[in-house]
Amino acid sequence: MNTRMKNLNKADKTAITAKETSTPIDKKDSHKVPTDNPVTYPREFPQHESRMNTQAVGQRATRPDGRLHGLGQTQYIDDIKFPHMIHAKILRSEYAYAKIISIDTSAAEAMPGVFATLTGKEIPTNSFGPTLQDQPVLADTIVRHRGDGVAAVAAVSEQVAEEALSKIKVKYEPLEPLFDVVESFGDDSPRIHGGDTNVYASKVIKKGDVEKSFAECDHVFEERFTTQMVEHVPLEPHASIASWDGNGRVSIWSSLGRITLGRQDIARTLDIPQSKIRLVGTIVGGNFGGKNEITNEPILALLSRKTGRPVKAVYTRGDEFVSSTIRHPFVMDYKTGVMNDGTLVARKIHILLDGGAYCSWTGTTIGKGSILSPGPYNIPNIYVEAYAVYTNKTVTGAMRGFGAPQVCFAYESQMDTIAEKLGMNPLEIRLKNAFSDGSSSPTSQRLQSVALKESLNQASERFGWQESEA
Amino acid sequence: MIKKGRGMACMWYPIGFTVMANPSAATVKVNTDGTATVLTGTVETGQGALTVLGQIVAEALGIATDDVHVVSADTDTTPMDYGAIASRTTYVTGNAVLSAAEKARQILFEGAGPLLGVPVDQLKAVDRKIEVLGFPSKSLGIDEVSQHCEAVIGTPSIGSASYNPPTVEMDPETGQGKPFNTYVYATQIADVEVDDETGEVEVKRMVAVHDCGTPINPMLVEGQIEGGISMGVGFALQEEILFADDGRQINPNLTNYIMPTSLDMPELEVGLVDNYDPTGPFGAKGAGEPTAVPTAAAICNAIYDAVGVRITTLPATAERVFGALQELKKAS
User: Fold this and answer.
1) pTM value > 0.80
2) Does pLDDT of A131 surpass 50?
3) Please, are residues A149 and A313 in contact by the beta-carbon 8 Å criterion?
4) B289 flagged as catalytic
5) How many domains does chain A have?
6) Are B64 and A51 a contacting pair at CB < 8 A?
7) A386 at interface of B, judged by CB pairs closer than 8 A
8) Domains, chain B
9) Alpha-carbon torsion, ordered A248, A253, A258, A264, to 10 deg
């Protein structure tokens, strides 16, 4: 151990014994610190052994941000304030599917404390989306779900902005909404985005010959599995601040998890060069996939340009549920061919994804969901067909697992159905079919660094699977 | 009556975007006192990614995690990165910061070689020193070497690099291709109790054994797994957005949208498989999303084991399990 390490360790011990929260305030400083506030920030900085070791990989290193969270020193967007900053709120659609006839913001604008309003027509390129740019930043001609924003207000406070929303008059011509995914997939359904189908993404994976294999195998199992819509529910809702400066450059602080692509998307909607945008990803209070595309950043930027002030917006929990993305519900039909000894020989899967009102991250979800859907098993014959369709419901997008939790629910439930029918232990049937190094995936990729059997064996051992067998 | 059951589920999950290029770039600068600064365009979303990236750079430079400061998430200062998505940060951004650190280290080696009188390929960075391979008594402090490179030779130790996982496009007709460079694997096993009079399910214990390649920081991996399981429990038993006939959400609030709290969490036993992926930084892959993948299947298999009803529609709420139990009674 070198001298520096020794010193740091000494510091460590001192720090841990120091009583940080009850450090007395020096008399000379007391006029600066409110005496009724018991919080004083620590003046000792503990060093943890886990961060001091020069073999760094494998250490249970503590997180520098963790201590700040614990002390309340982390600045989330809700904590960040700028001089003359004002607050924005967004009006949401009254209908799941309707034409917008007119939007009248004059009464809202006339309200004391209101600085500006914004509608979709004022947005230079009023569309966004990671693969298909089919979603308006603020809907200006048609609303396709209840979470669509139709107008925004910037005001002196959140309360005034909220009140001003109620003064905006929007005339709609309601259209017949479509909520059922199976109906939307049908030939006669109304087309939510025009065109000749509501299907906007599809995937096929084909390996071997499933039909031939079904005819030759000992057992065929057929089941339908369905999953629901769920929210990410991050502790911190979507939040951002935009501030346009006198050089025509806009700085945006956002809870977004992908700033490089986010800046591209914002530049596109605002029709300004990327170099004119500074996008800062702030400390995020949970993402889980839900903060991977722009939401209100262009709206705040334009409101800031209109008002010459920094503009902040923090979603309410309600906004978070209805207007941010959620997990795709899946309807999954599984047909699996098995031999008497439990060997899987064929799997045919049909998946229908409820794609909600806009595409968002459906492309990735349908891709990963399809590729993973046969499960981590050596199955020589595979046919997967997946379709994503529009409905007039909340936008489905990226969420932890991109379709994997849905298909895993199906393929692993069916594994137990098969095991029971064949009188096999669930562990045994999985080990029999599990991938190992060199296995060929459903897309014929040669797999490496496969540790599936190890995880099955170790989990079973820790659980006491064999001992607890009924 | 309370019935006990157990169920397992395993899974596989890819790291990075599907086929699409998803590069990350990074810059590493070794300061003249032997500490280092990393610039990355990824965002800390609460998972501890910046800590992991710091550990990777520290390991490459032979210094401690605390010697490394990671600057992130500002398009004015940090290099491009496709972001904290697709369980890609440890693997993709990790490979980028590792390459950048190796380039910075190479500058240190080129400065130290002549001073130590050995060829550059005979050096390693370890314990805050640049040391001669196989002859540890001959070494220089990384601070001295960095100072020498910057202030004497005039080549500051800065490295920039990027990484993109190699993929092969999927055939549009058959889907055949190599959509990802690597995958992780896991098994979760649930112990449940089901009240066969009310349909209520309680998850008592879960064992989760995950593969993430080398765990750069095992504590953070365990945290991911515990968090993933809580999300999985909600997906399995409680959470569902409900809609009225007019398309309005009925429960867009935390009073009526029921999520697991600490009281719903089972006892957890988390384990990591010993594995090493040669394509990842120090053998690491990733751990973010897969932790939430097999939970619901394991719980539903345990429900079947307990009371003999196969739940095919999630979530397995008490009403749904009760309904399935009634059907089962009718049928028998």
Assistant:
1) yes
2) yes
3) no
4) yes
5) 3
6) yes
7) no
8) 2-14+182-331 (3.30.365.10), 24-162 (3.30.365.10)
9) -10
